User: Which sequence fits this backbone?
């Protein structure tokens, strides 16, 4: 992930909305003190990674493009994901992704790697994550990779603890000096940090 530092992001220059995004995991790592409903922040947009909502062909995300769809069901899922979820439902993201996938200077390197289709699909998922974060003026997250991406992009964000102190340990070891990040240990501190 750290190879992304200073990477050209020409197709991702966005005008962020005034939204505050809570990029919130909903699994066993979620610290119960930071449940979205308990935060009391008005107009908070609550999402997990957008790519987690896409329809897959029951093959797993990274093997999607290794096998051609062979059944009507698989073709239908592929059309739903690529035609609607990643296309018509969000045309601005689609245009940005087309530029990212075709004209970014790193793309030509995929042909020299093992399984270029897997790398292109991962590149596309990475675009979705960048695009999702860059649309907001502030990110609140309990996802470690959300924090790392915000740090690399220099985005203002608030980093929350997870259930077993992984996030706090990472922050204290690696990213406590970032001016774009504030680590909040308790829900009572969160509203003040948002200001």
Assistant:
């Amino acid at each position: 992930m750290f190879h992304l530092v200073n990477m050209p992001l020409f197709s991702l220059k966005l005008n962020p909305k005034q939204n505050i995004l809570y990029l919130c995991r909903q699994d066993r790592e979620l610290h119960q003190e930071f449940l979205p409903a308990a935060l009391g922040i008005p107009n908070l947009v609550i999402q997990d990674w957008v790519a987690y909502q896409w329809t897959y062909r029951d093959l797993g995300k990274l093997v999607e493009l290794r096998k051609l769809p062979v059944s009507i069901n698989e073709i239908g899922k592929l059309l739903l994901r690529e035609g609607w979820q990643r296309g018509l439902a969000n045309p601005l993201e689609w245009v940005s992704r087309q530029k990212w996938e075709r004209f970014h200077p790193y793309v030509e390197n995929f042909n020299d790697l093992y399984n270029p289709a897997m790398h292109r699909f991962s590149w596309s998922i990475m675009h979705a994550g960048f695009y999702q974060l860059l649309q907001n003026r502030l990110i609140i997250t309990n996802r470690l990779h959300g924090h790392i991406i915000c740090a690399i992009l220099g985005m203002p964000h608030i980093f929350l603890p997870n259930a077993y102190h992984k996030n706090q340990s990472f922050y204290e070891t690696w990213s406590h000096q970032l001016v774009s990040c504030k680590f909040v240990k308790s829900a009572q501190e969160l509203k003040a940090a948002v200001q």
Summary: The beta strands are 20-23, 44-47, 138-141, 157-159, 181-183. Residues 2-194 form one domain.
